[in-house]
Amino acid sequence: MQRVLLSDLTSGMITAEDVFSMDNQLIVPKGIALTENLIARLFSFDLFSIKIEDEILTSSLENFSETSYAEKLKASPDYLAFKEEFKDNLDKLEFSLNALVEKNKDFDPHSLLSDTIGLIENRETHNTGMMDMILNMHDFDDCTYTHSLNVALICNILAGWLRFSPAEKELATACGLFHDVGKLQIPAEIMKKPGKLTPAEYQIIKTHPLESYKLLSRYELPDEVKNAALMHHERCDGSGYPYGFTYDKINRFARLVAVADVYEAMTSSRTYRDALSPFNAITYFENDGLQKYDPEFLLPFLENIVNTFLNQKVRLTNGLEGRIIYVNPVALSKPTVKVGDRFLDLKEIGNVDIEKIV
Ligand SMILES: [Fe+2]
Ligand SMILES: [Fe+2]
Question: From ligand 2's centre to the CA of 176, what distance in Å?
Fold first, then answer.
């Protein structure tokens, strides 16, 4: 152990004792590998020097080159089989949804639905493993078809976690599968525009729930499927569109699709895809979600997702790596992580988060 001047600190040095401010606020606990951000934070507390372990953290840096969780998953036979079937399903979905939009007779919602359910049920892989596989399907493309199929599968898994009856589970899957069909009518220049949308373009995007509803209304489909399409962007606090409905007026299945839809969209964005870490999405839902989404669906969803990662190896934003050993039900994005012999309760340590699953 040695005392090091703040000006001599470098990333990777490990704190040898809890570091407190002058007014006794814990700034950095013992055993944390310093990052540039943490060092900057220490400076802001007018400290002169802190105690540092003799060894600089290198082990976690070495681990960076190990086979990652995502790579291991992608090499598994289960994943490869699922990917093949997913691709076949996607081709069929694309053909069939285009038929729906072009108003010809090849749209067969019932066969699409049974194929989708076949993709997920009767598989050996447990639902929790399925969620990881789904998030990796964006290797194909981030288009409406992949998104729709993913949302359908997530709705199916969520309905299973919620112990829906088989009929309701099938209905939930159908609601996910067809919720965004109206997007296929929106010009590709707007849908695929890389930059920020203009207000006028955003208004056009916002027509897709009603367009979906109109397209689906021409078929013999349950009202829930049509209403989930119409209302999946409504939010319980009235902040959604197209009508600004609040909780009571939003169809129950639309409230369920909303959770699956937003989670899929967030975890498939480039920022999260490599990391395969849903913890950012969970943080968002915890901070912002309870007013907007139905807690009856949102809370079991988040809890099951986080439990998927129990015992998984994770990298923390302070550079340390460890395993998630306890999920705190009132702070799902802040589990307890075992790092070496130490237990880090991320809820207690305010400034450390899970960066990724490794
Ligand atoms: Fe949508
Ligand atoms: Fe969507």
Answer: 8
Q: Whole-model pTM?
A: 0.77
Report pLDDT for 205.
Answer: 93
Q: What is the mean pLDDT of the chain?
A: 85
**What letter would DSSP give residue 342?**
E
What are the C-alpha distances in Å from 286 to residues 282, 301, 348?
6, 12, 17
Same domain, 86 and 38: no
* Nearest ligand atom owner, CA of 261: 2
- Domains held by the chain: number: 3
- Give the dihedral sign, CA 49/50/55/59: negative
Ligand sitting nearest the alpha carbon of 240: 1
Ligand found nearest the CA of 259:
2
Residues 245, 248, 252, 256, CA torsion sign: positive
Q: Domain of 349?
A: 313-357
Say how far apart CA 104 and CA 123 lie, in whole Å: 34
Q: For residues 47 and 139, which has the higher predicted lDDT (pLDDT)?
A: 47
CATH (domain of 29): 3.90.105.10
202-242 confidence digits (pLDDT tens): 999 999 999 999 999 999 999 999 999 999 999 999 999 99
For residue 275, is pLDDT > 50? no
Residues in the chain: 358
